[in-house]
Amino acid sequence: xFAPFGLQVLVKVGASSDCTLGFxxxxxxxxxxGLACSDETVTLTRNLLLRSLPHQDLERLYPLLQKVSLTPRxxxxxxxxxxxxxxxxxxGLVSVLAKTDERNAVEVWLxxxxxxxGSTVALGIKTSILSHFVQIGGSALKIGVQDLDRxxxxxxxxxxxxxxxxxxxxxxxxxSAACSLRHSFLQRMARWLLTAQDRSDSDELPITQEVLARSxxxxxxxxxxxxxxxxxxxxxxxxxxxxxxxxxxxxEQIACRCYRAMCFRDAKGGRSEARRKWLLALxxxxxxxxxxxxx
Length: 295
Prior knowledge:
Distance between the termini: 58 Å
Radius of gyration: 21 Å
Number of strands: 9
Mean pLDDT: 77
Strand content: 15-25%
Number of domains: 2
Largest sheet: 6 strands, antiparallel
Order of helices and strands: HHHHEEEEEEHHHEHHEEHHH
CATH class of the largest domain: Mainly Beta
Structural class: alpha+beta
Shape: globular
Number of helices: 12
Oligomer: single chain
């Protein structure tokens, strides 16, 4: 049995191995909504950040987590407001928005089950300058900032996993900025749809043309024309408020190299860490060369 980070557990010989047995009573009252950490629930965790942790570390972290629903259009984190929770996304899609003026904002990246909302707290940054907006509904596992700080102080692997994720996010947002400057709208839209599919883990995306236009920083008629073109090629089917990707291979051919550089696809996750970083570096180099050639 593993105790949550920073807690002592008193276990009597022959006692049940239930994860909450023996916890300090005050702590139990405070965290009574935490998840039971059975082998089954730990195995069923869908968030890739959590799944990257050793089983025993995840068992200790689980009682500190609370499952919450993500409702479309909900703001998980307002810009300029202190971060109170970190959300490990299990299902759904969250847009990260940067303000361009008092009335408008643009999307700078997407978060799905590969990551977490509020992860800058791992660097000691307690207030975000960005807003986090639920694009596609789903669920998440949330943890309070104080509990997370304590967990990270006592487990270097959790801290390292969050730091690696933040590094990957920085690379992706930089790549996205370069892509927006140099590649066609059709290429950028294909990249966005592929990324949304990867991170929501679904072929059906409840996305409207208005959302796509706002996410990609263009006017709605631009999106309408591109959608009609791809729909005519059989790349995806569409009905009101829903895009269903039918031919992922064709969409990958349309997308620029930036998608491959930013790709988080779990199906390719069997490679060693060194090989993964080497392939990512090659993808980034190829994309930068492409941008330089067409500049």
